[in-house]
Write a structure and sequence with these properties.
- By secondary structure, the chain is mainly alpha-helical.
- The chain is 83% helix and 0% strand.
């Protein structure tokens, strides 16, 4: 039980220190990149001549990256919500199973979308065809998402087994 308290405390700390300010900064940047297009150089890491020629594409890429960041923050929120059920000693609640599946689906989607976006971004803005076959954060996101989806299935089977066990008294 102490490990659960430590995990919940760490996730709450990450939520307060990282996610809440990130929500505000991302919302500000989503508007600011249309007011000051040079701010896109921070995200896209390109020179100014490429940004000016394809400003609309750069702003679209910026918005998609911001949307992916919002989705990742939503996954942390769902995980916090799920940990509350564990603290209430309700690990087989249907919301836990649904939240694990949502987290897995969203993280897998974010990982795949980010990989594609980085590949296309390098092709469009840097004119480089670069394929990274090694370990990358996007591959880790896909793996983490698939893990949460498998965890959802395991909890679903365990819930069914628990219900069957409760009926055979």
């Amino acid at each position: 039980m102490r490990k659960l308290i430590i995990l919940k405390s760490l996730i709450d700390f990450v939520w307060i220190v990282t996610c809440i300010p990130a929500l505000l900064l991302l919302a500000f940047f989503a508007v600011y990149m249309f007011i000051e297009p040079e701010s896109l150089n921070m995200i896209l890491d390109t020179d100014t001549s490429n940004i000016e020629t394809s400003l609309m594409a750069a702003q679209l890429f910026g918005l998609v990256f911001i949307a992916l960041a919002f989705i990742t923050i939503y996954c942390v929120y769902l995980f916090r919500k799920t940990l509350r059920y564990f603290q209430k000693v309700k690990p087989f609640h249907m919301d836990v199973i649904v939240n694990f599946y949502k987290i897995g689906y969203l993280l897998t989607s974010v990982g795949i979308a980010s990989s594609v976006l980085v590949f296309v971004g390098q092709l469009v803005f840097k004119s480089q065809l670069k394929i990274n076959l090694g370990l990358s954060p996007y591959v880790m996101l896909i793996c983490l998402g698939l893990f949460f989806m498998v965890l959802s299935e395991v909890f679903k089977v365990a819930k069914y087994a628990k219900e069957e066990n409760n009926l055979t008294i």
